[in-house]
Design a protein that fits this description.
The complex is a heterodimer. Chain A is 60% helix and 3% strand. In chain A, helix 2 crosses helix 3, helix 5 runs antiparallel to helix 6 and helix 6 packs antiparallel against helix 7. The mean pLDDT of chain A is 85. Chain B contains seven helices and ten strands. The chains are: A mainly alpha, B alpha/beta. Chain A: Pfam families: PadR, Vir_act_alpha_C.
Chain lengths: 181, 234
């Protein structure tokens, strides 16, 4: 997701100025993606340049923006298009573990265990938040984080079981790696 | 004082060359108001641990104490009475008696001890799990989630302060399973102590502590008593 589409979705509710957009974005994402006001205004400028939003006359020193028909089309396209796995950030835990296995002197089981404890704590913390009242959009964001943490824990269990059967192959030394010409 | 305490508990199944070390020196305490989840792969000792906590099995060495009393110090008859009065069980397969109503199922542990007005206590226990008006229904007239709530009401009726739950959400869908966990959590918050065996991390996350077992030993403990909050509710 880009900030651009987030702001377009919020402006579909009605005209808003920068600070209102920042607060609404924070509320919609449950504070999981904090935006600074600079990001909001930079994005609004780009959206205005691309005719996706239009600035309205100033009101008490604040300039509200409204979504344009072009912005509405862009928003519909966004909602209709699935998010591709490749668009998401790389999984640092997976990369760290892959490197741990091939790095001499690293206790890989310990790396798995340390990560599992941390992820379990995170999952416990998210679950505690579920006991507090919240609106459905926030609860769904929370559920998404809970399911992601659960998936990571299942994957870590799988890694641990796989490590027990793992017999390492010799890792090529840096000097043996062929450099593409 | 802790409700449950395990002191260096070992359990060896079989003898000689075929002996299997099911538990290797487990020490664990569970305080009132505390929910402890036990996770681990198949064969890691989870069920053995739960059976020992409930006095359904005896350790090869070490001690299991419930409310300060060592279960090994009790005769079989005393142990049966102790279990009935002090320990509640929730199993994956519910173990409700089909020919008894919800209230009769819940009141059964009290009836076995000759407690009077057990029906009234059962109705209160059913009300606490949001099953007002279900007292005279038979298990097959209730949904899986409702039956599991009856099982929890039965587990907590009377003076019992320790609940042992073995995959209590196993047969339930995700949302109903969460309802059962919320209920268990609220019972624990009200002062009970509970041990929950589960393979589901989302369910274990309702616990205050998550104990990971491997090959009969505790390999890891995750606690949620961290000072900082990861996220705030908007």
């Amino acid at each position: 997701m880009s900030v651009k589409h987030g702001l377009l979705a919020l402006l579909e509710r009605g005209p808003m100025y920068g600070y209102q957009l920042r607060v609404a974005f924070d509320s919609a994402t449950g504070g999981t993606w904090p935006l600074n006001i600079g990001q909001v205004y930079t994005t609004l400028s780009r959206l205005e340049r691309d005719d996706l939003v239009a600035a309205l006359p100033e009101n008490e020193g604040q300039r509200p923006y409204e979504i344009t028909p072009g912005g509405r089309d862009e928003l519909r396209k966004w909602f209709a298009t699935p998010v591709q796995r490749g668009d998401r950030p790389r999984d640092e835990v997976a990369i760290k573990l892959a490197l741990a296995i091939t790095t001499p002197g690293v206790d890989v089981a310990k790396v798995v265990m340390t990560q599992r404890t941390a992820t379990m704590r995170t999952l416990q913390e998210y679950t505690r938040l579920k006991t507090q009242p919240g609106d459905l959009p926030w609860l769904l964001v929370l559920d998404a984080m809970i399911f992601q943490a659960e998936a990571e824990l299942r994957w870590l269990d799988h890694c641990e079981a796989s490590l027990l059967r793992y017999e390492p192959r010799p890792v090529p030394a840096a000097t043996d790696v062929e450099v593409p010409r | 004082m802790s409700v449950l305490e395990l002191r260096d508990v070992h359990r060896i199944h079989g003898a000689g060359e075929t002996a299997v070390n099911a538990l290797n020196g487990i020490s664990l305490t569970v305080a009132p108001g505390e929910l402890v989840a036990v996770m681990g792969p198949s064969g890691s000792g989870k069920s053995t641990l739960l059976n020992l906590c409930g006095g359904l099995d005896s350790p090869t060495s070490g001690q299991v104490l419930v409310d300060g009393t060592s279960l090994q110090s009790l005769s079989r008859k005393q142990l049966a009475a102790w279990r009935r009065k002090r320990i509640g069980y929730v199993f994956q397969n519910l173990n409700l008696i089909a020919s008894l109503t919800a209230a009769e199922n819940v009141a059964l542990p009290l009836d076995l001890d000759g407690v009077r007005k057990s029906r009234r206590q059962a109705e209160i226990a059913l009300s606490e799990v949001d099953l007002d008006g279900y007292a005279d229904r038979f298990p097959d007239e209730m949904s899986g989630g409702q039956q599991q709530r009856v099982a929890i009401a039965r587990a907590l009726i009377g003076e019992r302060r320790l609940v042992l739950a073995d995959e209590p959400t196993g047969a339930l869908d995700s949302r109903t399973g969460e309802t059962v966990l919320r209920l268990l959590r609220s019972k624990v918050d009200a002062g009970a102590a509970a041990v929950l065996v589960t393979h589901d991390a989302r369910h274990a996350a309702w616990a205050d502590r998550v104990v990971f077992l491997r090959d009969g030993a505790v390999v890891d403990v995750s606690s949620r008593d961290q000072p900082e909050e990861l996220l705030s509710t908007p």
